Amino acid sequence: MFNLRVHRIHYLVTVTLFLILSLSLPQAQAQENSPSEQYTILIMGDSISAGFGIDKQKGWVALLEQALAKENTQYSIINASISGETSSGGANRITKLLKQHQPNLVIIELGGNDGLRGSPIKLIKQNLSYMVQQSKQSNSDVLLLGMRIPPNYGQTYSQMFADQYSQIANEQGVASVPFLLKGIAGVDGMMQADGIHPTEAAQTIMLKLVQKGIKNIKIISQAH
Fold it and tell me: Is pTM beyond 0.90 here?
């Protein structure tokens, strides 16, 4: 009688353990296979990042999203670019966008329209620096995309305009692409008829420059 009771208890314990393991294994497997935390990229740009004059799905932003989709990390790209946007407009919008999306990375592509209007370099640099500072305060990495303007605006102004991007990047300790239209501006087939906006053929070149800039962020983060 005693042996029978012991065997019965042993049987119940074995069944209980089996049920516990059966229930816990699927849960553990689900946790192992669950997607990693989402990585959000906020893009603040003008018509160049908004895809003016081309199929939006063939613009550099869409191409970046397609490239990131092939990786394991879960990426989300928020393209807040607006055609005609200035650095002042970006500075006015960025705080709300940072709170709304809480991005891991902010890509800033602004200043071109300011330069074409002949806005003071001091004002442009102030606005861009503010955007970088606000992004950093929100614990976001920053990639600053540099632009240039035609030389007919005067050598001094054009040079100061081009230099401001690297200056801001060095002062703020963020990654930058010196000139987003490198290998594009002035090249046949790479610019639209207006001479300002890149064609679809130029988008992959911009994509590679941006991807290189994103890789540089890791180097800067390790240095700090």
Answer: no
